[in-house]
Write a structure and sequence with these properties.
Elements: H1 3-43, H2 52-62, E1 69-72, H3 80-83, E2 94-98, E3 102-112, H4 117-136, E4 139-151, H5 153-159, H6 163-168, H7 170-198
Parallel strand pairs: 3-4
Antiparallel strand pairs: 1-3, 2-3
Helix pairs in contact: 2-4
Length: about 200
């Protein structure tokens, strides 16, 4: 083999070694940067919290398609789907106690006549627990459901008003609505006082 060919091979080998070394250095630098970023994130102080309204909205939207559940009672609109037009109203009728790790839920509902209420309750619990945990990593430790009324689907549909009708009659309904909400607030206060008497400790962590 002549000297020229040997020289070319040595040059190619040196070039490959330099490329490999450069690639390893680049990979090492990238790994070091990612490690430093992860360490900075772990060492950074702060706290993630959720307002009650956020948890209530997650629950209200999650419950929309449960068969046999006509409405979460207490809102201005007549059913859950209509409440979504006004994002504030989807939380009506849903009360939550939110801690750093856990959530407790209380709500009033209207159920369709002829449906298995126990099954509806079980489905509600599963759905609430899954959706809240999936989005917030909080554990739902308690779900209390109070059935305030039952209606046939026909009666419920017949009594429903369209959102447009409700908006056009909003002024006339304000007094009645305020009175109803005041009564509900009084009832909620009474229930809250009873719970305080039964247990002075918070339900959630």
């Amino acid at each position: 083999m002549d000297n020229k060919n040997m020289g070319n091979k040595n040059f190619d080998a040196n070039k490959a070694n330099q490329s490999s070394s450069s690639s390893l250095n680049s990979s090492s630098t990238s790994s070091s940067t990612n490690s430093n970023s992860a360490n900075n994130s772990n060492n950074m102080r702060g706290e993630l919290t959720f307002d009650d309204k956020v948890i209530q909205k997650i629950i209200g939207i999650a419950l929309e398609n449960i068969d046999g559940l006509l409405t979460v009672d207490g809102g201005f609109f007549s059913n859950i789907k209509d409440k979504l037009v006004n994002s504030d109203d989807v939380t009506s009728g849903i009360n939550t106690e939110v801690g750093k790790k856990q959530v407790a839920v209380d709500m009033d509902v209207v159920v369709e006549y002829g449906k298995d209420i126990e099954n509806i309750y079980d489905e509600m619990k599963d759905l609430i627990a899954n959706e809240v945990n999936k989005m917030t990593h909080l554990d739902v430790i308690e779900v209390n459901v109070n059935v305030v009324d039952i209606k046939t689907r026909e009666d419920y549909e017949a009594n429903r008003e369209t959102v447009q009708d409700k908006l056009s009659n909003a002024t006339e309904s304000t007094g009645k609505f305020a009175s109803k909400q005041a009564d509900k607030a009084k009832q909620s206060l009474n229930r809250g006082q009873e719970k305080v008497k039964d247990n002075m400790e918070p339900r959630v962590e």
